[in-house]
Amino acid sequence: MASAPFQNPRGTRDQLPEDLLLIHHLERVAHEVASAAGYEEVRTPFFEETRLFMRSLGDTSDVVEKEMFTVPRRQADDAPELSAAEALANSYTFRPEGTASCARAYVQAGCAANAPAQKWYYLGPMFRYERPQKGRERQFTQFGIEAFGSQSPLVDAEVIAVALRFFQRLGFGPELEVRVNSMGDPADRAAWSSALREFFAPQFEGVSERCADCQARFERNIFRLLDCKVPRCVELNQGAPDLFAVMGEEGREHHQRMCEALQQLQATVTEDRSIVRGLDYYSRTVFEIHYPPLGARSALCGGGRYDGLVEEMGGRHTPAMGFSIGFTPTELALAELQLPVAEDLEDLRQARKAQIYVVAMTAEDRLPAMSLAAQLREQGWRVLSDLRERSGKAQLKEAAKLDVPITLILGPDEREKDHVKLRDMGAKEEQDLAQEKLVEHLRAFFGGA
RNA sequence: GUGGAUGUAGCUCAGUUGGUUAGAGCACCAGAUUGUGAUUCUGGGGGUCGCGGGUUCAAGUCCCGUUAUCCACCCCA
Questions:
Q1: What 8-state DSSP symbol labels residue A355?
Q2: Cβ proximity of A385 and A357 under 8 Å
Q3: DSSP H or E run through A378
Q4: What does the pLDDT look like over A134-192, one tens digit per residue?
Q5: Top-level CATH class of A17-183+269-343?
Q6: What's the complex ipTM?
Q7: CA distance A95 to A69
Q8: A74 CA to B59 C1', in Å?
Q9: How do the domains of chain A map onto residue ranges?
Q10: Topology of A353-445 in CATH?
Q11: Strand B within 7 A of A43 CB
Q12: pTM
């Protein structure tokens, strides 16, 4: 087999300097929006024990069943052979989402017992072994927040408000729409599950009209019958019992109060019974944020309440609520909306742009030019000098192309007098300066940098 | 995991019914009265035609496999 060219792994992408301008903007807005509401950043490992995700997301979730990036742990040479199940339980998996790790860290740090009220956010790469397509990658970035320790519907409203704020800050318009639903409490779901089982049972007797996936779901995770997209299955779902019909008073009131709190938002809030997040840990509130002008691809954010997860992780019962936002769909949406506008990125652009370019006219000037550049960097300026040993003309050309405002020209004439020629690229004016006056002049130009 | 489309220079693409040394624009590099940014002009570097195999006197062009990308499904951020 001859050499195939090297390529980035499927579903990943390189983020080159040009791409990072936008990414940095998204990251900045995420940091700002989260800390403005009192959330503090946490960073957990990129991989965890596989069983963490199996436990938190649920064995029957698609993520666990077919989308995990799992690597075996090393075994001692003389260790006994492991069964497939043991090997899996003993493996590591690259995190497919952020909530499980946060809950694990929360318990491990002792928060559940000692400091239950925590407001955290995270921002970083997640991994899912999926077939890539538009808006979906195997390595992608998620921004999420998690509010631990309060049962109050006020938390639900705040978390949703933070997510909204993120999109508003990025320039999304007032068409932003929050779609909410409730999954109820465990007891509600048990009651609902029985009701659904009773309702659907006849459909699975004998030769079923249901799709193959649904046949499996009926046994494994009956709720997921409800979000099947096969047309015949959708028809057969008509008239299925509604969770709200069996939901207890507390859950109902929680939902009611949250919706009232959401009235304060600068966005439309609608009830959407079809939102049934695919992960097991959700309870009560689940929500999505959509931007309808984007059409089919309008979902930007998903989240909800997970009151049982901390306990599941071995901590004391702690209610919690969070969201996650994928940068990939957000980037696509922004591109479609022709956002962000240039001004939003201007400061980032400026911050990475060189301020000074030191031009060396002859070979003898190169070392002095380098050391002048080094001195100026020590003063805090962003300074370039030519590393390709090109002509003075080519250096000026490059400085102009990079839009560097000041060039310092160093040649035999200047060196002889211990001078340097300062050229204002915008005004196209230059002046001879004694080197000891240089910093002063530059300070004046850049406004006391 | 299933189905469909695509893959020629860093980028956007040409490339006739298979026929000699595979092209253009942009980008990059150098030069145009001996130390200076635009435009223009001249010249230059850069391609195992995704990879592997097959058919043929001859393959970028036809066939098979493979890989990657894009699109749809599943699901999701």
A1: S
A2: yes
A3: helix A366-378
A4: 888 999 999 999 999 999 999 999 999 999 999 999 999 999 999 999 999 999 988 99
A5: alpha beta
A6: 0.87
A7: 8
A8: 49
A9: 17-183+269-343, 186-246, 353-445
A10: Rossmann fold (3.40.50)
A11: no
A12: 0.92
